[in-house]
Design a protein that fits this description.
Layout lengths: L1 E2 L5 E6 L3 E7 L2 E3 L1 E6 L4 H11 L6 E5 L2 E4 L3 H7 L5 E6 L4 H6 L7
Antiparallel strand pairs: 1-2, 2-3, 3-4, 5-8, 6-7, 6-8
């Protein structure tokens, strides 16, 4: 278990799945994680248009590089035709998952 010091405390728990729990004014938020991939720059533009409609924070990670999932240039730097980890810090992201389902890596 890991607890980060600071204003918000992040706690990582793990058995079969990794959970990120954020304590913010007595509100507990679960991290949702999925893998996505993009074939061309137009897909990245469409993806960013869809995710910017949501207020929740999102990160994308490939290897040691982490970028904001709402940043076109950041995602383009992660490259095309690569499997990228998307982390959404929100409990209810089912609608988001449906909107971006075309980019989910098989």
């Amino acid at each position: 278990m890991f607890v980060e010091q600071g204003k918000n405390k992040n706690q990582y728990l793990g058995n079969n799945e990794i959970l990120r729990v954020m304590f913010d004014e007595k509100k507990v938020i679960k991290m949702n994680e999925m893998k996505v991939t993009f074939k061309n720059p137009e897909e990245i533009l469409d993806f960013v248009k869809k995710v910017t409609k949501y207020d929740c924070p999102m990160d994308m990670k490939r290897g040691r590089f982490v970028v904001d999932a709402k940043s076109i240039l950041g995602i383009m730097n992660l490259g095309l035709n690569n499997v990228i980890n998307l982390k959404v810090y929100d409990d209810d992201c089912e609608q988001l998952k449906q909107e971006i389902s075309q980019y989910v890596a098989a």
